[in-house]
Specification:
The complex is a heterodimer of chains A (635) and B (306).
Chain A: E1 5-13, H1 18-31, E2 35-41, E3 50-58, E4 69-74, H2 77-83, E5 87-96, H3 112-124, H4 131-140, E6 144-148, H5 150-160, H6 166-170, H7 173-184, H8 189-200, H9 206-220, E7 240-244, H10 245-255, E8 258-263, H11 270-278, E9 282-283, E10 289-290, E11 293-296, H12 300-312, E12 316-322, H13 323-338, E13 343-351, E14 357-361, H14 366-371, E15 380-383, H15 387-404, E16 408-413, H16 414-417, E17 420-424, E18 471-473, H17 487-507, E19 514-517, E20 524-529, H18 532-545, E21 550-555, E22 557-559, H19 566-569, E23 573-578, H20 584-593, E24 599-603, H21 611-624, E25 628-631
Parallel strand pairs in A: 1-4, 4-5, 5-6, 8-11, 8-12, 12-13, 13-16, 15-16, 20-21, 20-23, 23-24, 24-25
Antiparallel strand pairs in A: 1-3, 2-3, 2-17, 7-17, 9-10, 13-14, 15-22, 19-21
Helix pairs in contact in A: 1-7, 1-8, 7-9, 8-9, 10-11, 10-15, 12-13, 18-21
Chain B: H1 20-34, E1 41-45, E2 60-63, H2 69-79, E3 84-90, H3 91-97, H4 99-108, E4 112-118, E5 121-122, E6 128-129, H5 153-160, E7 164-169, H6 173-185, E8 189-195, H7 207-213, E9 214-217, E10 225-226, H8 232-243, E11 250-258, H9 264-271, H10 297-301
Helix pairs in contact in B: 1-6, 3-4, 4-5
The chains are: A alpha/beta (635), B alpha/beta (306).
The complex binds thiamine diphosphate, iron/sulfur cluster (SF4) and magnesium ion (MG).
């Protein structure tokens, strides 16, 4: 069955072990040789609100999700109400009959707007709106439903095992639900038990209890028909890892020689810093243990200031934040631009403005990142499209910063930051990139001029403490770094700084700045950026199978802007796809190249675009010449 | 090294009679006396008249954003603890726009010396009230008396956790110089509140005003140094009480010092194996041909599913 490609979904109240359940599932199916791409959706809340994981299981690597669910695994009532309409015809719902009589009215965590939509929905069908009602509707829609009294089953097992405290066993309802689904998917029991071993090994009786619960799930389902797509073992080679976007950026930074990171907690950025803090003692190839200092600061203003200060000493430095924090960093960013500090800001985009949608996806900060800071100053702005790109971009960002002595903003959207993927370990190779530190002055120089005017704008950089003395000021300055307001000196310094961007533009290869997919002769070209990449790749593949050729230009660097993309775009019908309202990338195409995009596909409800909605929108545009499609799918 | 070697030939553009001149001389003398090579010092200054000081000192100096020199200095110090890091800035800079950083620095106790140029006004923006100017006081630069109550830098530093808290006077250069040297020697965050006149905008806190009021905290009458844990309560309380003295008599000198509190660098050393021996700025990250030296294999292994 080479076409294995299915969506498995589980949900539940935040803080109730959903992350663990999804992790267990992903690890289990990965062990059978499948790739996994999981999307994590959650509220800005610690306990109680609905969070869910959509996990795509496929034979080939993917970096996107489909809306239609193959398997919905729900042990709580809200997950049913949130997802029952998403299950595809022939898809499966595994749910907890314990909740049958629960109705919408009494689920306090349901948001009012959804409650009202559901009331109306059930009212039209003359139903009260219980879990059972939702299940019946799903059945009508063609879903196959497997109900289990999950609490009851776990209780029986607990008793059998002589477990007095039933309450303790209740926490295995999650494991039971996951195992019921893997059994129905025909996944070998050994895989999920081994996955449990990875996760709970060394945690006392927990592992054995999980194993027992998994045995129970497989027993309960032994006579039930399997799903039409089964996860039988498929061949694989090498090692594979399960990583989310935050972690892979952190790994890239460690590979890139990060030696200082400051941060102020914010979603969806701080997981990166927390991971770095937990793994700061890094082994080097010569067996020494070195590593970055990680500092939690009093605010983001301090975070950028500290990273700037550390960078001056020669330590590779960065900070990570999202919109609200970046807003506070802007003055410090300009300072880095002015005194030519190599500093990296990993900018995780979430829904704005203001606090916005703190835990949801967005690509609305592109223009802000590009224009952040008063006055003109050079900065490099790049963005990653998937996990692998994020890893190498994190390393390269540290290189760019030092080579061009300027701030680098690495944009990562929330969808990617929180998406977890099974990745071939060989793809994360530290031998594919070199450390490039640019012009660093190692010897002592008499009368050292930190801001010496040079041909390419880059002045040899002495680090503080290396034996040279210099001055630097956020005021306009001369080559020595002292304040000047002389009009001619102003011009030459201003131009020197800006020239570095021209140098960067010349030196950074196109392969690090954009990718082109598909046939170059296609009449329609999709232009997009960030994590939309995954869904778009799927869509152009599907359309190709239908005989429709579409090109796809994935932009990865916005400053310096890769004007070379022009050769792919001129004379084509352009479709811009972005997760924002204004079509910010389309605006840039116009500003940078004078190119007008023909159609826009936009999404700003906080959920990343899925394959199927992108597909329909693109089709709509190709067939009807539609100018603008707003995508609205998502739970 | 001679005191004069710490001078630059940049024109010092403060107003005649400004207290900043005294602070500059005292700093240069202290640096000479402390005997570190000029390139081992790093001075981070804020924005204001005071902030310009780095251009007049012949050692590395970063003239920062308004209010941000403390966190920037902390970043540099933590990345390379071998540097002798000095922060120099105004009362507006560090107690107004940067007060959050001022307080947070105390909690960390990073080894640095903070020189607070306390002139009661925002000099460079033409004399608005700074956070150290008492409420009800009307300097000649103000159209009405100051509406806000003042902060007490000594009490605030004590509360925040600074482990060296002192006050000096810009026109008593030797006394100031000695305190700067002690602040640099101190392991931990040192706050030196430096009373200075701003003859251009502040006609209240003048040389004459201070001249009759200042007195020195000196042994045998005063000893603010905590040498044993048992002494802490007594010395800290006395220092706090002393901090509240402001009127006909104003104390200058070392209010409090406590080197028993671990510095932030000590705390990092507990967690970061290499830190004391090879701080971040001095670690190798690649071989000579640029090959990455980080070995990710252990970290990746912990994430393996296959
Ligand atoms: C973010 C920001 N806001 C305002 C200013 C304008 N500004 C320049 S100097 C200054 C006040 C300086 O007062 P103080 O720190 O007491 O230094 P002094 O001049 O008295 O030495 C202000 C508000 C600025 N440079 N940056
Ligand atoms: S304005 Fe005041 S603080 Fe500024 S230089 Fe003149 S006297 Fe000194
Ligand atoms: Mg002042």
């Amino acid at each position: 069955m080479s076409s294995t490609d299915l969506m498995w979904v589980t949900g539940g109240p935040q803080g109730s072990g959903i992350d663990t359940a999804a992790n267990l599932f992903a690890r289990a199916v990965a062990k059978a040789g499948y790739y996994v791409y999981g999307k994590r959706e959650y509220h800005s809340n610690i306990k109680g609100k609905h969070s869910y994981f959509e996990t795509r299981v496929s034979r080939d690597k993917t970096s996107s999700c489909m809306d239609a669910e193959d398997i919905l695994t729900a042990y709580d009532p809200e997950t049913i109400f949130q997802h029952f309409m998403q299950v595809k015809k022939g898809g499966i719902i595994i749910y907890n009959t314990h909740n049958d009589t629960e109705d919408i009215e009494h689920i306090i965590s349901l948001e009012n707007a959804l409650k009202e939509r559901l009331f109306e929905f059930f009212h039209k069908r003359e139903m009260k709106g219980t879990v059972k009602d939702a299940i019946d509707v799903a059945k009508e829609n063609g879903a196959l439903v497997y109900g289990f009294n999950m609490e009851g089953e776990v209780a029986v097992l607990a008793k059998k095992l002589g477990e007095a405290q039933l309450g303790r066993f209740n926490r295995y309802v999650n494991t039971l639900a996951v195992a019921l689904s893997t059994s129905i998917l025909g996944l070998s029991k050994a895989h999920i038990q081994n996955a449990a071993g990875d996760m709970f090994g060394g945690k006392g009786s927990t592992l054995q209890e999980n194993i027992d619960v998994i045995d129970l799930a497989y027993e309960l389902t032994s006579d039930l028909p399997k799903y039409r797509v089964t996860l039988t073992d498929i061949p694989y080679s090498g090692h594979r890892v399960l990583l989310d976007g935050n972690t892979i950026v952190a790994l890239g930074k460690l590979a890139g020689g990060l030696r200082f990171q400051s941060y102020y907690p914010i979603t969806p950025a701080s997981d990166e810093s927390v991971y770095l803090d937990m793994n700061k003692n890094v082994r080097l190839t010569d067996s020494t243990i070195d590593g970055p200092a990680i500092v939690q600061t009093e605010d983001e203003i301090a975070a950028i200031a500290m990273a700037n200060g550390a960078a001056l000493t020669g330590a590779r430095s960065s900070t990570a934040t999202s919109g609200p924090g970046f807003s506070l960093m802007v003055e410090g960013l300009g300072f880095a631009g002015m005194i030519e500090i190599p500093v990296v800001i990993t900018y995780y985009m979430r829904g704005g403005p203001s606090t916005g949608l703190p835990t949801r996806n967005s690509q609305a900060d592109l223009l802000f990142a590009l224009s952040a800071g008063h006055g003109d100053f050079p900065k490099i702005v790049l963005s990653s499209g998937d996990h692998i790109e994020a890893f190498y971009d994190a390393i390269r960002s540290l290189n760019y910063a030092e080579r061009y002595q300027m701030p680098v903003i690495h944009l990562v959207d929330k969808a990617l930051a929180n998406a977890y993927a099974v990745i071939d370990e060989a793809e994360l190779s530290t031998s594919k990139v070199k450390i490039e530190r640019g012009a660093i002055l190692n010897n002592r120089e008499d009368n050292y001029k930190r801001f010496r005017l040079t041909e390419n704008g880059v002045s040899p950089r002495a680090t503080i403490g290396s034996g040279n003395i210099y001055w630097a000021t956020g005021d306009e300055h001369d080559e020595l770094g002292h304040i000047t307001e002389d009009p001619y000196e102003r011009d030459s310094m201003y131009e020197k700084r800006m020239k570095k961007l021209v140098t960067a533009d010349k030196e950074i290869p196109e392969s690090e700045r954009f990718s082109y997919f598909g046939d170059e002769s296609a009449s329609h070209i999709i232009v997009s950026w960030g994590s939309n990449k995954g869904a778009i790749l799927k869509v152009i593949h599907t359309l190709k199978e239908e005989g429709i050729d579409i090109g796809f230009l994935h932009l990865r660097m916005f400053s310096p802007f890769p004007k070379g993309i022009n050769r792919y775009l001129t004379g084509k019908k352009l479709i811009d796809i972005e997760s924002n309202y204004r079509g910010q990338c389309a605006y840039l195409l116009k500003a940078e190249l004078g190119i007008t995009t023909d159609s826009l596909i936009l999404k700003y409800n906080g959920r990343p675009p899925s394959d199927n909605e992108v597909y329909s929108a693109v089709k709509d545009i190709i067939v009807h010449g539609t100018k603008k499609v707003v995508l609205t799918n998502g739970v | 090294m001679a005191f004069s070697s710490f001078k630059t030939d940049v024109w010092v553009d403060w107003c005649p009679g400004c207290g900043d001149f005294g602070i500059l001389s005292a700093l240069q003398m202290a640096m000479a006396e402390y005997k570190k090579p000029a390139s081992d010092y790093a001075i981070f200054s804020g924005i204001g008249c005071s902030g310009k000081i780095i251009h007049y000192v012949n050692s590395t100096g970063i003239h920062n954003l308004h209010g941000r020199s403390i966190p920037m200095a902390i970043g540099a110090k933590l990345a390379n603890p071998r540097l002798e890091v000095i922060v120099a800035g105004g009362d507006g800079d560090m107690l107004g726009i940067g007060v959050g950083h001022f307080v947070s620095a105390g909690r960390r106790n990073v080894d640095l010396s903070v020189l607070l140029f306390d002139n009661g006004v925002y000099g460079l923006t033409k004399g608005q009230a700074a956070p150290t100017l008492p409420r009800g006081i009307k300097t000649k630069s103000l159209s009405e008396p100051n509406i806000d109550t003042n902060l007490n830098p000594i009490a605030l530093a004590l509360t925040a956790g600074y482990t060296f808290v002192a006050r000096a006077y810009a026109y008593d250069i030797k006394f100031l110089k000695d305190l700067i040297v002690r602040a640099m020697k101190h392991r931990g965050s040192a706050l030196l509140d430096i009373l200075q006149a701003c003859p251009t905008y502040n006609d209240i806190n003048t040389k004459e005003f201070y001249g009759s009021r200042l007195y020195k905290l000196e042994e045998p009458d005063w000893d603010g140094v905590v040498r044993k844990p048992e002494e802490w309560n007594d010395k800290y309380s006395k220092a706090m009480q002393k901090a509240l003295e402001w009127g006909d008599k104003i104390p200058i000198g070392l209010f409090y010092q406590n080197e028993l509190v671990p510095s932030y660098e000590d705390r990092i050393s507990q967690r970061l194996t290499a830190y004391a021996e090879r701080p971040p700025a001095l670690q190798s990250i690649s071989t000579s041909d640029g090959t990455i030296m980080t070995d990710l294999s252990e970290l990746l292994k912990s994430k393996r599913v296959l």
